[in-house]
Write a structure and sequence with these properties.
Layout lengths: L9 H12 L5 H16 L1 H8 L3 H14 L17 H9 L14 H8 L3 H11 L14 E9 L2 E8 L10 H12 L17 H15 L6 E5 L5 H9 L3 E5 L3 H4 L2 H7 L5 H16 L5 E4 L4 H4 L11 H14 L11 H8 L3 H13 L4 E3 L2 E3 L5 H24 L6 H16 L2 H18 L3 H21 L7 H16 L3 H26 L1
Parallel strand pairs: 3-4
Antiparallel strand pairs: 1-2, 1-5, 2-3, 6-7
Helix pairs in contact: 1-2, 2-3, 2-4, 3-4, 6-7, 8-12, 8-13, 9-10, 15-16, 15-21, 16-17, 18-20, 18-21, 18-22, 18-23, 19-20, 19-22, 20-21, 22-23
């Protein structure tokens, strides 16, 4: 029997309206809360008309509210197939943190089912539950934005976004779903999603801790919108009031993964390659058993290394090698596969003609392969990387000795690159620091005014970039040690002490080799 419709007490009405208007409330629950308020205000028939449901449905939810309050408006458990076990859910969701099977660019339902030993139907049900296409998060929470921050920490998980100043070219959000799924599932490294993972206490302290971490680690660009997977307590709102450049929204439990489609739709389409790089780094962290992960977007790559050098050493060769590395990093290209001139030109931001000429030169210098008129990415061995690094070490000693023996100041580009390394160290940007470190070494090679030695050194840099990317060498040469090693080399060069400069260079190579060989031994 349906309870007669009656007026709501003021506290009941306020609670229902808060639920109906909350940005983090599931859409179904919010709709039912509003329906109950309409039932009390206008009666069952009018409430049903306003919500486009039958009178019987309006009566059902009114009765459910009278029997169980707001909790009674949640979806009741349905009979039929039992829900998947927690360990199965974790296995299915965790696939996003692993590299897809050989030959696949992304995880398919079938691949996940085979990897986890479950059925495709179960995988599909889990994905529909955790990645609903009609996510309740309103789109106005996140306007078109750039992802600038990801932090996975025992205290909680945070995504940071900066609004776009200008609209980007339209591009279907589907191409960003795969990378964003890994970004959101990174919470599984140490966090908790809908009861999966260790429980965490002290919500107030955790909220403040992750907000302060974000403020310390985020680039200087403002304003910032933060999505956090913990409740924002009164103390957190007080902190936000004192930091007006930050806006934060809480998405806990299943709502965190439920952000997928909305976030993928809002993120800058031109950021796809960067998102894939973040995806790769998260997967590396997972493979290494990391329990934490932090990524913060550096200023534009050109600004990290300064503006003194507008064209990199070797010109188009460097641009094209970086384009090749970008394709490898995102999984678009694998060792031994054919290089598409058109695609490499797009990734390198050069014309197809220039890209084709650069690939021909790279093939002549054996940095890439050419068979049957087609360019292919080489299939190097760990020994190839070691030999390349050894040769660079020998050439580098000649460069360091020459620079310390002549009475000429180092070019401004050296200090610009070093300033970029300092910035990377502050933001804990290991990958970017490694790339800028190679740029700094190339700058020294050019400054030595030894054309043949400098030419060979810079070509080995290009080869090393390709090999390191193919192997996924994230050997974590710490940014602090990169800074210290480079500082010693620069100091000894400026002190005009050739022997000390050579010793500093050899020490740096020993450190590089230590971290590299540790990683290569794991590959073997």
């Amino acid at each position: 029997m349906v309870a007669p419709v009656s007026q709501l007490a003021s506290n009941e009405r306020e609670a229902l309206l808060r639920t109906a208007r909350s940005r983090t409330t599931p859409q179904g629950l919010a709709t039912r809360a509003g329906l109950v308020v309409d039932c009390a205000d206008f009666g069952l028939a009018e409430a049903a008309r306003r919500s486009s449901v039958s009178r019987a449905t309006a009566a059902k939810w009114w009765q459910r509210y009278r029997d169980g309050g707001i909790d009674g408006l949640d979806d009741a458990a349905r009979s039929g197939r039992p829900p998947a076990a927690d360990d199965v859910i974790l296995d299915v969701l965790g696939c996003a943190l692993d590299t897809p099977p050989a030959g696949a660019k992304r995880w398919t339902t079938r691949a996940v089912a085979e990897a986890t030993g479950t059925s495709q139907a179960t995988v599909s049900r889990i994905r529909r539950r955790y990645f609903p296409r009609l996510d309740p998060a309103p789109v106005e929470v996140l306007p078109p934005s750039t992802l600038v921050y990801l932090d996975v920490h025992p205290a909680g998980c945070v995504l940071g976004f900066h609004p776009l100043s200008e609209p980007s070219p339209s591009r279907p959000p589907g191409v960003r779903l795969d990378a964003m799924e890994t970004v959101l599932c990174a919470a599984l490294l140490s966090g908790r999603i809908a009861g999966h993972g260790p429980a965490r206490a002290g919500a107030g302290e955790r909220a403040i801790a992750i907000l302060r971490r974000a403020a310390e680690r985020l680039p200087s660009v403002r304003p910032i919108t933060l999505f956090v997977d913990v409740e924002l307590t009164a103390s957190a709102h007080l902190w936000l009031a004192g930091n007006p450049d930050f806006t934060a929204y809480s998405f806990t439990g299943e709502h965190w993964l439920g952000l997928l489609h909305r976030v993928a739709d809002a993120v800058d389409p031109t950021q796809l390659d960067e998102l894939r790089e973040i995806q790769r780094l998260v997967r590396v962290a997972r493979s290494e058993g990391a329990r934490q992960f932090t990524w913060s977007r550096a200023p534009e790559a050109s600004s990290l290394a300064g503006t003194a050098q507008t064209e990199p050493p070797a010109g188009d060769l460097t641009h094209v090698v970086r384009g090749i590395c970008a394709a490898v990093s995102t999984g678009e290209l694998r060792a031994g596969e054919v290089l598409s001139v058109r695609r490499i030109a797009e990734l390198s931001a050069v014309s197809s003609g220039r890209a084709s000429n650069a690939l021909a030169q790279l093939a002549e210098e054996a940095l890439i392969d050419k068979r049957s008129g087609r360019y292919r990415l080489p299939v190097p061995t760990p020994r190839d990387v070691v030999e390349t690094y050894t040769a660079r070490g020998l050439l580098g000693t000649a460069i360091a000795r020459r620079l310390a023996s002549v009475d000429h100041p180092l070019p401004p580009g050296v200090d610009d690159h070093y300033a970029g390394l300092v910035r990377c160290d502050e933001l804990e940007l290991v990958l970017e620091a490694g790339a800028i470190d190679l740029d700094l070494q190339d700058e020294l090679a050019q400054a030595a005014a030894m054309p043949r030695v400098g030419w060979m050194f810079i070509r080995l840099t290009l080869q090393l970039r390709i090999f390191i990317t193919i192997f996924g060498l994230s050997y974590r040469y710490p940014t602090g040690e990169i800074l210290a090693d480079d500082r010693r080399i620069l100091d000894e060069i400026r002190h005009r002490d050739p022997d000390a400069a050579v010793a500093a260079w050899r020490s740096k190579i020993d450190n590089c080799a230590h971290f590299m060989l540790t990683h290569l031994s794991a590959i073997r």
